[in-house]
Every structure is written in structure tokens, then in C-alpha cells.
Write a structure and sequence with these properties.
2 copies of one chain form a homodimer. With about 240 residues, the first copy, chain A, is mostly helical. Helices cover about 65% and strands about 5% of the residues of chain A. Chain A has 2 domains: about 70 residues, Arc Repressor Mutant, subunit A (Orthogonal Bundle); about 150 residues, GntR ligand-binding domain-like (Four Helix Bundle (Hemerythrin (Met), subunit A)), CATH 1.20.120. The interface between A and B is large, with 36 and 36 residues. Chain A binds a DNA duplex (30 and 30 nucleotides) through helix 3.
DNA sequence: TTCATAGGAATTATATGATAATTAAACTAT
DNA sequence: ATAGTTTAATTATCATATAATTCCTATGAA
């Protein structure tokens, strides 16, 4: 009898538990349970279990058919751009590959977001970026959470792009970076160099200079990427650490 | 009594119908119906309606609470990076803004995808790109569907990135471009210039040259963007045509 | 009046049991 | 062997009942 995680309600708890199990590959070597089995496992009614299964279906994680039962879809069907799916992947254990792929993806999205921000940001967007930067300065002085202020800056830039597809990535970036904080849990302060790099992005956006905004953002992400690649084990076997 | 669309089953039909209605803004000026009302509207059981609602919840379109009922979430909660949500938005009527935002997003993702492909593509990925290019050549000669071959080329490049977050965008690109075909329905052939532009991407990827691959992809998307911006009405009022 | 508290009502959440539809697998007849 | 038929497993749908949540209202006290 699997104990479902606490949550808003029973359905969501089961979604969380199953989603995480699927992401962790628990059902790679055994079939996904049928409805009736899930009911006993979670001591829940069929309604609740079916609703949970449907939510996972909506995110591409599972499929189902009469007589055939319910099964875990191939990874290529999973919606990696869904914050829940992403968080389940992260919780299932650290993976250098996943982290690197995500930074590569950020290298695509965030520089362009900054460029768009330089062209499209509204006054309120600029104000939010300015505030985020001030928070980073306060953090540099040791008087605020340095990693959270870092995250908030990136979110503010994404917001300022005023592009709904790009803004959507806020949740993904937040999910991953928040996870990274928990993982490292290092109380590193904001480095002066780092602050200057972020200042450069903000300046470019304030100046309405897309090219400079793009380049400045790219620089930060290149740095992040090479940092994690340095730490990555050489052997492709141990690329995932649970 | 709303007639639900045909589909795999009743639940999915209701998801389609409601998803599209929400995207079309049908509930902007009236409250979203409560469970019981939806049951009568679709002449379906509560189980089915609730499962449909849960699937829409999983995509960020709606929320629900006891006594408070069910409501349409603000657009910022919608998962724009979900292919169903995107297709519902498209079906709800052409919007220059949405199209432009999507091309801007492609400008972020696809050049980087090409760059990654130049570095990470496996032999089978390269073969797929080669085949896609050949199909475009056949289309240029008028012996294959030109727009479909164009789409397939872009999908092959995304695939070749070998980055799961970027590969996910295949479904989005496919959804939008397929929709664009239906919309324009123009039997335009593959222009020689266009073919050469795609050839340039493939060459760069084959040569393992990320910088050139990125630039060549960007060129095509810049072209697409300026093309649609030319056609866009100047007044921000008529930015959406139903 | 104003505030807190309790009660009532609306709606979703959960449980249970029954029937229908789908389809893979087993069976049968040729 | 092969085509067609039956059977059985599982999800899909329906119906109904009860519980939990929370907004709203009524009540009463300061």
C-alpha cells in the first residue's frame, strides 16, 4: 500500500506520487498497475484514481485502453515543458544530462527573452527588473537571499519579453533553479562579478539594446554551462546520481 | 445542449470542446458552468465531466474548489507550451499577435537546435535531415507536398538536437505550421531561394559548424517574421481576425 | 454599529456498485 | 493453417449516495 503524498486533496496526492514514480523509472521493469490495483494500493476510490490517471494522461506520461490497461508512455511523449513533469524528473534524482540539457534550452530562450525585453518591455516590466537588481545588490551585501534574488532577476526578464510562449518558461526556470538551491544548499553570496553580469543585462534592456541584452544573457548561461560540464563525470555510465 | 466533438471517447471529446471554448474566450463574460450544468450540457455522467475537467486543470486552463465551483484560470496560468492548448488557441481564430509571438519563440529555439544538431547529431539524425532535404528538392520539382516537406525538415533538425526540452517543441512547431497550411491553403511551391536556405542549414550541420547552422536557421525565421509583420494591420484593435 | 461566532447552503471531493464498450487472446470449425 | 467466433480482461460510462470545504447569512454580544 503506497502512501500518497500530502497535498491539496487525494487526487493531487496520487498524481504527485505516480508522476514521481514514473519519472523515476519505477515502472521500467514492471507493468503499470490496472485501475483496481491502484485503488487498493492507495486505498482510494475508482473515481479518484481515474481522475489522477487522466491528469497524468494530459501531461503525456501514460496512456490507457480497454482490455489493454494503463501503461507508461515512452519518454518522447512526456511533456518536458510542463512544470510538474519537470519537477518529478528532478525529484527522481540528480542527472547531469538533464541539467545540461536544461541549460542548453535556457541558452535558447533567455537571451532571446532579454532581446525582446529590450524592445518590448513596458515601464512596469523595467521597474520589476530594476527592483530585482536592487535585491541582488542587497544580497551582495549579505542582507538578502542571494540565490532567490538571482532567480527573481531571470524571471523578471522573461516576464518583460511580453511573449506568452517565453513567459511560460518562468515556471520551468523557477522549478529547476529552486531545486538547484535545495541541492547545493550552499550559502554562497552574490559574487561581484556575477552582479556586474546581471547589471549588464539590465543596462542593455534599459537602453533598449537587444543585441547587447542577448549577448550579456548568453554570457551568464555559457558560464553556468561550462561550470556544470566541468563537474560532470567523464564516464557516460555514472551520468545519473540518485 | 452543446454537442461535443467526435473523438477517441466522450471524455476526450468534452476536453476538446471545452478547451477550445475556453481558448476562444467564451467564458470571458459568463461564469464557467458547475459540474451539474456541464453534465446536462453534454448529457454525460459526472465521472466523465469531472475527468475532462481534471485534464483541463492539468493544462492550467481551469481551477476548482468546493463551494466556489469551477473557473477559467487567467491566461498566464495556461500552458502555452502544450500542444493541445496551442491548437485550441489556433482554432479559436487567427491572431497576428499569437503568430508573431510564436515565430519569436521559434527564433529562440530553432537556431539553438540547429547549433546543437551540428555538435550532437547522431548518424541517424543526419540521415533524417538529408532525407527531409531530398523531399524538399522533390517538392521543388513539383512532385511532393512542398509545405509538408518544409515542416518535416524543421522537425528533423529539432530532433537532431538530442535535447529533450528542445525536441518537445516538435509538436508545437508541427501544430502551428500544419495550421498555417490549412489557413493559407496556398499551393505555393518550394522557392529555389527557400530550398537553398534550408540547404545551408543542412550543410552547416553536416559540417559540424554550430555557428553557421545557427545563423542559417535564424535567417529563415527572420524572413518569416518580417513577412507576417508586413501583413499585420497597423491598428492594435484589429489584431485578431476570427 | 461592529465584531465574532455559529449555522446553513452550494459545490466539489470521494466512495460504491452496476452496466457498456473495446479489444487481445483463446477457441473452433473448416 | 486460416478465418471467423467466442470469451475474458480492462477501461469507459452511468447513477447515486455521502463527506468535506468554504462562502454567505443570521445571530447575538460588546
Amino acid at each position: 500500500m503506497t502512501r500518497a503524498k500530502k497535498g491539496r486533496n487525494l487526487t493531487h496526492s496520487i498524481v504527485e506520487t505516480l508522476g514521481q514514480s514514473i519519472a523515476a523509472g519505477v515502472y521500467n521493469d514492471k507493468p503499470f498497475p490496472i485501475e483496481a490495483k491502484l485503488c487498493t494500493q492507495f486505498s482510494a476510490s475508482r473515481s479518484v484514481v481515474r481522475e489522477a490517471v487522466k491528469m497524468l494522461t494530459a501531461k503525456g506520461l501514460i496512456g490507457s485502453r480497454p482490455r489493454q490497461g494503463t501503461w507508461v508512455q515512452g519518454e518522447r511523449h512526456w511533456n518536458f515543458l510542463d512544470k510538474d513533469v519537470l519537477s518529478w524528473l528532478l525529484k527522481s534524482g540528480f542527472s547531469y544530462d538533464l541539467m545540461i540539457e536544461f541549460i542548453e534550452y535556457r541558452k535558447a530562450v533567455e537571451p532571446e527573452a532579454a532581446a525582446l525585453a529590450a524592445r518590448n518591455a513596458r515601464p512596469s516590466d523595467l521597474e520589476a527588473i530594476r527592483v530585482a537588481l536592487v535585491h541582488m545588490q542587497i544580497a551582495e551585501a549579505g542582507k538578502a537571499d542571494p540565490l532567490q534574488s538571482d532567480i527573481n532577476f531571470h524571471l523578471a526578464v522573461l516576464d518583460a519579453s511580453n511573449n506568452r510562449f517565453i513567459i511560460q518558461n518562468k515556471e520551468l526556470v523557477q522549478t529547476v533553479l529552486q531545486y538547484a538551491i535545495k541541492l547545493t544548499n550552499k550559502t554562497k553570496g552574490v559574487q561581484t562579478a556575477e552582479l556586474e553580469a546581471h547589471q549588464a543585462i539590465a543596462d542593455a534592456i534599459f537602453a533598449g539594446d537587444p543585441v547587447r541584452a542577448r549577448a550579456a544573457t548568453l554570457a551568464i548561461l555559457e558560464e553556468a554551462l561550462s561550470l556544470i560540464q566541468e563537474h560532470r563525470p567523464k564516464t557516460s555510465f555514472s551520468s545519473a546520481i540518485s
